[in-house]
Design a protein that fits this description.
Elements lengths: L7 H6 L9 H7 L4 H8 L4 H17 L11 H11 L22 H9 L1
Length: about 120
């Protein structure tokens, strides 16, 4: 998006959240309504619920997804954690990491075994 009409300061801030947010700002711009909660609740684990809600409110308020969805003010993480009833806000650090599940192994590690 062309931003030549913006000052250097505003161009740098475009598509980013401020470093900190006040409680009134959080309540006004980052409240999760019933529809939002329905979307968030479709996620299974707390870290996915919290990470998804961060993406949701960020794209809604900044107009873009952040390069790093965890690069947000701590007040925002805490506010969303409070709204969702999640006990540990630090679980968000696991957002976006894939888990090994079901005993799956890389094909290259079992290729010889399968060939026998």
């Amino acid at each position: 998006m062309p931003v030549e009409f913006l000052s250097d300061e505003r161009a740098t801030a475009y598509g980013r959240l401020p470093e900190s947010l006040s409680r009134p700002e959080l309540e006004r711009f980052f409240f999760l309504d019933d529809v939002d909660r329905g979307l968030v609740e479709s996620k299974r684990r707390d870290h996915n619920k919290l990470g998804f809600s961060l993406q949701l409110v960020t794209v809604r308020n900044v107009g873009a997804f952040l390069d790093d969805p965890l690069e947000v003010p701590v007040e925002l993480v805490d506010y969303l954690t409070e709204q969702l009833g999640i006990a540990d806000a630090s679980c968000v650090k696991s957002y976006g990491k894939r888990e090994q599940s079901g005993g799956w192994r890389e094909f290259s590690t079992v290729e010889d075994e399968l060939g026998e």
